[in-house]
Amino acid sequence: KLHKFKIKNHTVANQTFAKPSANEMSGARRLTTPLSAVAAAIARLHSTPACVPVHLRRQQAVLSPATARTMSSSTAPSTAASQHVPAWDPSEPFEVFDAENRSLGRTVPRKTVHEQGLFHRSVQVLVFNSKNELLLQRRSPHKDIAPGTWDLSCSEHLQPRESYEAAARRGLNEELGIIIITDTPNKGSDSDSDSGTSQKGDVASPVSASGLRQVLPAFLQDNAYPHVGLTDREFVECWELHHDAPLNINPEEVTEVAWKPLAEVVDEMARHPQSYAPWLRDSMARYLKTRGNNN
Known about the structure:
Elements: E1 9-12, E2 15-18, H1 22-26, H2 35-47, H3 54-60, E3 62-63, H4 65-70, E4 93-97, E5 103-109, H5 110-116, E6 119-128, E7 133-138, E8 150-151, E9 154-157, H6 164-176, E10 179-180, E11 208-209, E12 213-225, E13 230-242, E14 247-248, E15 256-261, H7 262-271, H8 278-291
Parallel strand pairs: 6-13, 10-11
Antiparallel strand pairs: 1-2, 3-14, 4-5, 6-9, 7-8, 7-15, 12-13
């Protein structure tokens, strides 16, 4: 059945489909757009994640560790939005810092921060299960930087005056549906740390976890991407979480996830470094030194 759309015009694949006039509807007319293009347009409209309410998309995207372990671009559910690149706001305010990671007391739009290579902060979280498997996200193939590569379990830019721990908690909730239930600040968190619990009621998940801890104090990751005119200078803290409950992934944020044995990740990074985001390789090298092993 054809769906009735209450829209004046809709453009798909550089073709504009206009709402027919009353005269056109009353009699036969010549079809100027190929039927195949119309069918494809309707199929794309029907399958787009935007057609499904957020709370329903989150419910459909609940993944157990076993499901996530085998999830690939060919088997991922449609709600995982494998072709969707989350939009980011170029005007989002980033707090900027000096070369010693001291706040300059001002914010700069995100786009300007990356164009000018200003120092800012981000947090990374490595999520492991009881089998010593690391949860990885795959970046969208449509990304300008490191497209299609495996990335950290979770990562977030810090909001102005936000602590590293609070940002880690927020990212885990927004991306993976993991809510940290402990309110005790962890060692290494900033003095302005808060509980970091659920911030968005429409995407919150009943899944909970504990044991979030800092494993790497702040260090600088300085990466230049001349092909897109960006320089990313971030003071990063790395945190670790052990978690076995099902994931409630947010298709607005996450393209694909997989659980991989840590030893396999280490081996693959050595043999196929191009398959992993450069900042992940750097962080993992630092992290493995703190563990004292490469297993």
